[in-house]
Amino acid sequence: MAPFSRVREDISAARAHDPAARGPLEVFFIYSGLHAVWWHRAANALWRRGFRFLPRAISQFARFLTGVEIHPGATIGRRLFIDHGMGVVIGETAIVGDDVHLYHGVTLGGTGHDRGKRHPTIGDRVVVGAGAQVLGDIEIAHDSAVGANAVVVRSAGPWTTLTGIPATGRPRRGAPLEVPDEADFYVI
Q1: Signed CA dihedral, 49, 53, 57, 60: sign only
Q2: DSSP of the chain, one letter per residue?
Q3: Has this prediction a pTM greater than 0.85?
């Protein structure tokens, strides 16, 4: 997808998530969460080509400008919306799906000095509330929600709401009566 198409898509997603967004120009020029994502795309492209110093420098520059720190090695899906942004940290091996909504102060972090995959995987259409900490090589499956200030250290299935310290899960409001597994989506 062309870079300008991705920018338009990001702006549309921001307007869909934020009722305070008054127009595309305001979103383009003022929304620091989107600016952080755009800087990340540039840094990530260099990271995937084997560069290390320059992508990290870009990431730190973006952090200085936006208050959002996204490691250039993180994998970010389409239409990520970081609302208010300040204090968001996304670690090197984190994977963030499509249509994810993060509020300020969210950490997608590691829990130790291990090598390899050490940050969480966030599925599609997940909402992570302000101040939440999602830690370690865990998976938060699609259509889940993490409450504000929750500390999540265990994986959660689809359509789960996670709250508390440590977070515990319960079915998310609006979940289908029976959550289909992946096999139900294939026609033979």
Answers
A1: positive
A2: --HHHHHHHHHHHHHHH-TT---HHHHHHH-HHHHHHHHHHHHHHHHHTT--HHHHHHHHHHHHHHS-EE-TT-EE-TT-EEES-TT-EE-TT-EE-TT-EEETT-EEE-SSS-SS--S-EE-TT-EE-TT-EEESS-EE-TT-EE-TT-EE-S-B-SSEEEEETTEEEEEPTT--SS---GGGG---
A3: yes
Contact 135, 109 (CB under 8 A): yes
**pLDDT bucket at 178, cuts 50 / 70 / 90:** low
In angstroms, what is the C-alpha Rg of the chain?
A: 16
Kindly state the tokens that stand for 131. 């101040």
Tokens standing for 87? Answer: 């204090």
- Determine contact, residues 18/45, Cβ cutoff 8 Å: no
| 132 pLDDT above the threshold of 60 | yes
Task: Assess contact for 142 and 126: CB atoms under 8 A.
Answer: yes
**Integer CA distances (angstroms), 25 to 21, 22, 56, in order:** 10, 8, 29
